[in-house]
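Fill in residues.
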């Protein structure tokens, strides 16, 4: 982890309002207590309002830079449930992002909403999401964004195997199952592949440029009849 990232995360941990010992921070960040002491000192010298001392613990004054967030209870419930779903079923990078977002939100909530935060009884167990699948989500999501061709061996439900090279277009989550929407070079058509049936996944250096008839919106035009629903799916805030 870069030092700048570590300093940022220390501030986020301290924003939670609970006293954090150097050992607790060291365990969370997988560094030594000595490193934490040095980082805390540097943050204090830079003007970060960290209170506390070695051997006792540290916290951050709650008036630091961010005003209270005025969420309604319904909005707060939706945010917490969404973050828990991401932690349960998202890629490894998504899990880290959800954890950090929850920490930042909780740290600046007014007292009444902070109590509400702790009493949200909506959970999303993610024990079926194996670590290698989380990494696969990250890998293929990156290929969707960079437009790199992906190669993998695929096993269908009936046991038939095939080697595929595809143009990754989007990842879609269906009630516990991730699928990759893609343009398949073997079939010369759109195909959806379950991530848990892939093996030997590799992202190639070769890139692709979808032409008309090969784009994500072309695929959605076939499977989503409503123009309004297609526009909602393709909106910048939809999906990830």
């Amino acid at each position: 982890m870069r030092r700048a990232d570590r300093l940022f995360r220390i501030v986020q941990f301290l924003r939670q309002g609970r006293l954090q010992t150097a050992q607790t921070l060291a365990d969370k960040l997988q560094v030594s207590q000595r490193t934490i002491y040095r980082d805390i000192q540097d943050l204090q010298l830079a003007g970060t309002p960290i209170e506390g001392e070695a051997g006792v613990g540290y916290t951050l004054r709650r008036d630091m830079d961010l005003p209270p967030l005025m969420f309604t209870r319904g909005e707060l419930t939706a945010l917490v449930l969404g973050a828990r779903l991401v932690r349960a079923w998202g890629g490894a990078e998504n899990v880290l992002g959800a954890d950090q977002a929850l920490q930042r939100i909780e740290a600046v909530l007014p007292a009444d909403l902070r109590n509400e935060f702790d009493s949200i009884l909506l959970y999303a167990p993610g024990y079926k999401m194996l670590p290698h699948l989380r990494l696969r989500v990250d890998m293929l999501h990156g290929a969707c964004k960079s437009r790199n061709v992906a190669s993998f061996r695929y096993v269908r439900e009936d046991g038939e195997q095939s080697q595929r090279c595809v143009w990754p277009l989007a990842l879609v989550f269906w009630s516990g199952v991730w699928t990759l929407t893609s343009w398949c070079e073997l079939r010369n058509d759109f195909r959806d592949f379950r991530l848990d049936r892939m093996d030997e996944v590799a992202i190639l250096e070769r890139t692709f440029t979808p032409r008309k008839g090969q784009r994500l919106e072309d695929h959605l035009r076939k499977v989503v009849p409503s123009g309004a629903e297609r526009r909602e799916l393709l909106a910048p805030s939809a999906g990830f």
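The first strand starts at residue 50 and ends at 53.
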